[in-house]
């Protein structure tokens, strides 16, 4: 069979037709890509706006309620009434009346240096209850304590002070012992504590023992303060006595601890009481 000859014009026409088809396809594909790009842009924009809306919602102003810190009431208890747990007794502030006797003395259920029926083993009821908690915590800390001396009557203080004067002279006696009517022990709120093995009993070295350090650091939690701190003899009138703690209640003891004020004279702005 003889081959059919294709004319150059026919080939040119076919080529043109193919090129046109390809161009059309490319144009359509370009349109599709543009459309797809627009869709992606729209979706991205919507996602961004949505996130911003969520963020704005999270960062929207919130109502914050705050509780005002109530100032410490320094006039909550009397500083002069001998029955007040805040009564301040020093060389400038005697008890009134001087022969005052607390009405609620009791013996705390703790280790005692003397028999339970001795008056010196008694304290005011509130102080006695607090001391029991303090001693329990000390025992848990493996630094057990005992009560060396608590309440002292006016008549007892007469005898005790006279003994110091006779032994050491009045100047030395006034630095170590209170005159009758000027003793914190008479309030039933002061306690001399010591170690159960009597090491450094009523001595300044008690402050260097594990028990003494624990008392200095933890007693405020139970309402007690170290009444005669180290280096403040000019303020309190007495030498450093790490064994002598005074019950003032948890509120005042905590306030003094947190504010770093060590003496009642300084906390209540009463002035120094170095001598009579």
Numbering strands along the chain, what is their spatial order in the largest sheet?
A: 3-4-6-5
Query: Structural class of the helices, strands and pairings?
Result: alpha+beta
What name is given to the CATH topology of the domain at 105-267? Muramoyl-pentapeptide Carboxypeptidase, domain 2
How much β-strand is present in the residues?
Answer: 5-15%
**Count of DSSP H/I helices:** 8
Which architecture of the domain at 105-267 does the CATH hierarchy give at level 2? 2-Layer Sandwich
CATH class of the domain at 105-267: Alpha Beta
Mean pLDDT: 86
N-end to C-end Cα span: 149 Å
Main beta-sheet annotation: 4 strands, antiparallel
Percent range for helical residues? 40-55%
Number of strands: 6
Gross geometry: elongated
Would you identify the regions where 5 or more consecutive residues have pLDDT less than 50?
1-15
């Amino acid at each position: 069979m003889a081959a059919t000859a294709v004319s150059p014009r026919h080939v040119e026409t076919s080529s043109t037709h193919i090129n046109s088809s390809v161009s059309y396809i490319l144009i359509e594909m370009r349109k599709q890509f543009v459309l797809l790009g627009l869709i992606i842009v729209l979706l991205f924009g919507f996602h961004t706006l949505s996130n911003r809306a969520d963020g704005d919602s999270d960062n929207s102003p919130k109502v914050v309620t705050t509780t005002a810190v109530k100032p410490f009431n320094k006039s909550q208890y009397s500083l002069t009434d001998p029955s007040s747990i805040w009564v301040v007794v020093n060389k400038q502030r005697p008890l009134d009346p001087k022969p005052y006797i607390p009405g609620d003395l009791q013996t705390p259920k703790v280790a005692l240096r003397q028999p339970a029926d001795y008056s010196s083993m008694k304290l005011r009821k509130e102080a006695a209850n607090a001391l029991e908690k303090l001693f329990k915590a000390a025992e848990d800390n493996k630094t057990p304590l005992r009560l060396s001396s608590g309440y002292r009557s006016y008549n007892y203080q007469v005898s005790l002070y006279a003994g110091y004067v006779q032994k050491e002279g009045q100047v030395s006696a006034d630095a170590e012992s209170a005159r009758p009517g000027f003793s914190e022990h008479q309030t039933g709120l002061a306690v001399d504590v010591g170690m159960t093995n009597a090491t450094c009993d009523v001595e300044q070295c008690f402050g260097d023992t594990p028990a003494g350090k624990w008392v200095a650091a933890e007693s405020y939690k139970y309402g007690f303060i170290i009444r005669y701190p180290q280096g403040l003899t000019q303020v309190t009138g007495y030498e450093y006595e790490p064994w002598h703690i005074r019950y003032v209640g948890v509120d005042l003891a905590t306030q003094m601890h947190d504010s770093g004020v060590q003496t009642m004279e300084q906390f209540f702005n009463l002035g120094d009481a170095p001598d009579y």
